[in-house]
Every structure is written in C-alpha cells, then in structure tokens.
Amino acid sequence: MVSRFEHPAGGYKKIFETVEELSEPVPATVTGRIPSFLKGSLLRLGPGLFEVGDEPFYHLFDGQALMHKFDFKNGQVTYFNKYVKTDAYVRAITEKRVVITEFGTFAYPDPCKNIFSRFFTYFKGVEVTDNCLVNVYPIGEDYYAVTETNYITKVNTDTLDTLKKVDLCNYVNINGVTAHPHIERDGTVFNIGNCMGKGASLAYNVVRIPPTQKDKSDPIEKSKVVVQFPSAERFKPSYVHSFGMSENYFVFVETPVKINLLKFLSAWSIRGSNYMDCFESNEVLGTLFHIARKDIGGGQGEYIDHKFRAAPINLFHHINTYEDNGFIVADVCTWKGFEFVYNYLWLANLRSNWEEVKKAAMMAPQPEVRRYVIPLDIHREEQGKNLICLPYTTATAVMRTDGTIWLEPEVLFSGPRQAFEFPQINYEKHGGKNYSYAYALGLNHFIPDRIIKLNVKTKETWVWQEPDSYPSEPLFVQTPDGVDEDDGVLLTVVVSPGAQKSGYMLILNAKDMSEIARAEVDCPIPVTFHGMYKK
Fold this sequence. Notes:
By secondary structure, the protein is mainly beta. 8% of the residues lie in helices and 40% in strands. The strands form nine sheets. Strands 16-17-20-21-26-25 form a six-stranded mixed β-sheet, with no helix packed on it. A five-stranded antiparallel β-sheet has the order 1-7-6-3-36, with no helix packed on it. A hairpin with a 2-residue loop joins strand 22 (313-324) and strand 23 (327-336). Fe cation binds at residues 180, 241, 317, 530.
C-alpha cells in the first residue's frame, strides 16, 4: 500500500506545466480491450494555464480551468480538452495579466488606471473568482464546472463550450458552496457552504436543488436551504470542502482551519492579499462533528444539538457515511493536526526536486483514513462509558462531564507521508449505505503515484503503480449486470512524462486492480482534481 517508488528524476513537475487547448478531438491508441459497456465520456477538471504573460500563478488551486474529455465509442477512444471561458480566464487572456485574484495569487490593479478609478474599484468590493477548476456535476439536465465560490459555470459536455456563469447568491443564502455535492438517485443535489446566520453571525447552510423539472424550468431557481449548522466562532467559519450524507442524516465536520472574515473583507483589496492569507488555525478548538436529520417533513431538515468533539484534523474528502443500528458511521480522509495542508500545495513546493519535496512533506500534517462513529441515542447519565456497541469497530464515543461527547476514530489506513486521497466508491449502489470498498489516489509526499483499493472492513489493500507515472482520482464505473459491489472498472488519467506518448486513460479491473486497457495520446495532460463518468 505504501509507495514502492522514489521520484528522483522529478517527472511529476510536468503535471504543473501550461498546455494549449486542442482545436479538435484526437484519437487515442488503445492497448488491451475497452469494455463494451463503456459508451460515454470521462470528464475531468484541473488547472491548465499556470501563468499569464510573465505573471505566474502561485498555488495549485490558481491555474485556469481546463476541461478534459475522453470519449468511448465502439471500443475506440478520443481525447479532447478546452479551457473554460470564465471571466477570470477571458480577462486574463485579453489583458495578458492576472486580473482576478485566485486562491493564492493576488491580482494587482490595472497599471493603466489612474488613482481615482482604482479608488472606485476598491469601493465596489472584491471580485470573486469564477475559475471552476475543481469538479463537474449535473444539475437537472445541465452540467456545471465548479470551484468553491458562489459562481458555477454551465458547460456543454459534448463540445466543452462554456455556456453561462451562474451566481448562486441570486437564489439562496450562501457565500459559496463546495465542489463536492451529494446527488441522489433521482437527481436531487445537496451541497453545503457558509452563510450569514442569525444576528450577523456565521453559519453553514445545506442547500437542496431539485431534480429535472417537468415544466423544463431551471432547478437552480427552486434551490432551498434545508438545514443550518451553527458556527463555533462568530466571525470565523471553518473551511469546508465536503460533507457526509447517509440515507437520513447529514454529517458536517467543523475543523480548526478557519477563514478570518474580517481579514478577508478589509485587508484584501488594499495590501495585495489573496484567499490563502485569510486562513488561520485555531489551536485550541479541536474538531466538532455536527449532525442533522435530512427531512423531518416538507423537505426541511433539523439540526440535532449534540456536541461531538474530536482531536484537531484537516478534512477535505468524506469517503462514505451510513447508518447502522442507531449509529452513524463516517469514513473520512484526514490529516492530523490543525496546520492547514494547503500551505504545502504552493506550486514552488510541488515543482521542487524530489529530496526537497520529501523534506517539505516531513513537516506537514500526516494523512490517515479514519472511521468515526456517532451515536444517535444519547442519555446524560451515561457519562464516562463508550456509547458505541457496533461489533466491527474500535471507534469510541464517550460522554464527558460537560455533556460533550468525545469521539476517537478507528484507523482504516495509515502510512507515513502516504495519503489515501481523492476517494471514490461505488456511489450509485452504496453511497450513504453500508459498503466494503473505497478507491483512491495514493499521494507519496503529496506527489500522486499510485491507485489504491481499500477494503474498509478488513483493511486489506491492492495497488496499481508504475515507475514515473502520475495518475489522478480513480472513478468507479459499475458493470451493467454486476452483482458484487466491486464489479466494475476504475478510470484514471495517467501522465508518464518519459514515455513516447505522455498521457493515457487507464482502465483497471476494480476487483483486483489489474490493467484491462489503456488509451494513449500524444499531447501533454496536466494535473486534474475531480470529474465524473457521463453515461
């Protein structure tokens, strides 16, 4: 499970290099046989433009959004990509400079403007980026490329054309939403983001967007807040990247990584700061787990006011969440401690030589796959004893004298500086339900170099890995007549800079992680974060 490879040649630097978009799809060279049930498209998003003119982007989450597509047809594969024509991208290309401040890159004011027009721009407030480089998902019959702000971008998944920018603030009380919604079988979308709560304090809203409407109207117009979680600190919401959802509950983990809103609102237009400058860690707060009922009638949820506490962690990705006999089981990819992991994702770090990359990762929080178990039935008199009685887990929940419940996790996987990240499951059949298998990208000192399968019940692992090959998040596609949970394939985009053809789409058998086929292309492919298989 731990990476067998070192990367002294530094081939991984290639995945952080600018590429030009293609003018038309290119055919891939297929080795092996493409399963006949693959007839759709693999869609991926990530950064593709890492500098504008002579101005660089500094952070992994700053490069301009490039959308990738592998199309499957009659056993053949084509590859296509296109930049999403966001305001951030179009204005940068037009003005040949960084115009809109990104996650870790400040946009300097236009040098051609005089002091008065700059002054007025300042009073108009912050221009929030629409650079949708993180994920793509369906809402109704439409598809949206997304980041974590209030802007999402409607795209045509056939042509990869950009259709329109949508501001979610126009429909629902939210400052931004995550790039990791939960989507139910009927197409209902749930997402979470922070918002202004009661009495000018911060909170977190869960938003529900209904499925395709009979009258063909836009489901986004019928978005509703279904439940609100309180914020532990009035002006400092936690950074939220994803959340958990079982059949009847939401799980929201409030970590000690905070956004200092006052810094965000005041300092930012004046002193050349960016989003990264507005994060801070609360070293005493630890982690809070919140739960809410999904639907108590009329489409409204209900917050359950129990204080579940745990040691400080960073958490970006929930693996799966399910209910079992009065307990909620939440499996998550964590990083131990309160220091923000994104501090280690500056491009200068990731493009360093291998020994430097390793040194930096030694300082960073350590990754661990954890299972937390939350009891639903709680009585005050049960102080001091473990409330969890599921036979298969060592996770505990103990009520303290102050009425808070302290959660200790079961460790499902842990390897020094070896992360199990960008997790995926057989979501269609097992999302929100009891399950056995998770698939992930293995990060070796933050460098992606393997695909991992984990049996969460037995902790057994399987690995696919090749020298100087840098894969991306594996997406699971179920075999149409599949019976077992792992009857299916994994799709991942691999970059192998030294090879004759530097990028390929790899198809693995999800049962044993053996290679079924690969489709190689002759063009460079940069890093991608998330995506989907569109049938």
